[in-house]
Structures are given as C-alpha cells and as structure tokens.
Design a protein that fits this description.
The chain has helices at about 5-30, 30-50, 55-80, 95-115, 130-140, 145-165. It is an all-alpha fold and about 170 residues long.
C-alpha cells in the first residue's frame, strides 16, 4: 500500500474520493434531483483536482460552467420529468445488467492500460503567461472562437427546445 507523504498527495486522494464518490452516487440514485446534486459534488471534486494541478483557469471554468450549468440542468430536468418526481411512479430500467457488464469491462480495460503505463518524471512548469496564450488562442481569427460560438448557439437552441417541450399546453 502506498502511503501519502505530502499534503498535496493527501488532498489528491480526498478530491479523488469526492469525485469518484459523487460519480457513483449519480448513477446509483433513483431520484433525478438527488443525482444532479451528486453530479455537482463530483464537479467540485474535479475543480479541486484542477487546483492541485495548478490550473486555476480550468478550476474556475469547472465551477462556473459545469456547476452553474448543472443548476440549470436541475431546473430543466424537473420541468421535463414531472412524473419521475412523483413518488408513486416507479421508474424501471430493464437494461441495468448489460450496462453494469459494459461498465465493468470498460473499467477493467482502463485499469489494465493505466497499469501498463510507466509514469516518469515531473511535468514541465506552467509558463507564467499561459492565460495570455489561452486568451489569444480563443479570440484569434484562426483560433477557437468560432467553435466556441457554435457550441453556445447549439446550447441556446437546446434550452429553447426544452422550454418548448416542457411548456404546458
């Protein structure tokens, strides 16, 4: 058994447990609202891992976009699935056994691949002007601005569609 020696290693283990525990609770909860709340917990764990990786921009994006986005997801999930929130309605999923088998096989493959990989050395230091480089990449004419805007328009269309479907007739 590997014993952690530094505070950073202990925090990594704690944030990893928070992330994985939240993810497991997401897929095992029957209540949609509770599953979304556990997804928020998992996203907070991922943000903590980004902080440990000295990536404050990614940690901020994780908190603002994903955690904020999940709050909106909860609202739309409740709007679209009012019957699922009713305790008298039984939600059944007859495909949980094949899903469990596929998940365990995928997990075994990932553990096998990660176990065969030799991790060596320490990563290169993050350049001091990394946020400036990221900003220039996002807004450059040949950068990522167009795909970012296309994704935002698609999300807007999805929100409008969800509201239209959920609207009472």
């Amino acid at each position: 058994m590997i014993v952690p020696h530094t505070v950073q290693q202990i925090l990594f283990i704690v944030f990893g447990i928070i992330t994985l525990g939240g993810a497991v609770m997401v897929v095992t909860r029957r209540n949609l609202f509770h599953a979304a709340l556990f997804m928020i917990v998992s996203f907070f764990g991922v943000a903590g891992l980004y902080v440990l990786l000295e990536a404050p921009f990614l940690a901020g994006v994780q908190l603002f976009i994903y955690v904020g986005g999940i709050a909106i997801l909860i609202i739309f999930a409740i709007m679209l699935t009012r019957d699922m929130m009713n305790p008298n309605v039984v939600a059944r999923n007859s495909q949980w056994v094949p899903a469990l088998v596929v998940s365990l096989l995928l997990c075994a493959v990932l553990v096998w691949i990660a176990g065969g990989y030799h991790f060596e050395g320490t990563p290169d230091p993050v350049p001091a002007h990394s946020l400036e480089i990221l900003g220039q990449t996002l807004v450059a004419p040949d950068g990522l601005a167009l795909p970012f805007e296309v994704a935002s328009v698609l999300l807007l269309v999805a929100i409008i569609g969800a509201v239209t479907i959920a609207r009472e007739r």
